[in-house]
Amino acid sequence: MTSNEVEYCVSCNVRLSGEGAVSFKCPSCGADMGRCGKCRQQSNAYVCKKCGFQGP
């Protein structure tokens, strides 16, 4: 991972690695967030720790 990528899934807090893991910006405030492949596949909810935005 590069220095500007987050290291842990915002949904389940596991370390991001492997296929399907992504880092992205919060649609509301632009904070860096990441999700593991499993949470993305299962469409687990997430909450931005900075602004409280909730996503699928």
Automatic annotation (TrEMBL):
<dbReference type="Pfam" id="PF07754">
    <property type="entry name" value="HVO_2753_ZBP"/>
</dbReference>
<dbReference type="InterPro" id="IPR049683">
    <property type="entry name" value="HVO_2753-like_euryarch"/>
</dbReference>
<feature type="domain" description="Small zinc finger protein HVO-2753-like zinc-binding pocket">
    <location>
        <begin position="9"/>
        <end position="52"/>
    </location>
</feature>
<dbReference type="InterPro" id="IPR044720">
    <property type="entry name" value="HVO_2753-like"/>
</dbReference>
<dbReference type="InterPro" id="IPR011668">
    <property type="entry name" value="HVO_2753-like_ZBP"/>
</dbReference>
<protein>
    <submittedName>
        <fullName>RNA-binding protein</fullName>
    </submittedName>
</protein>
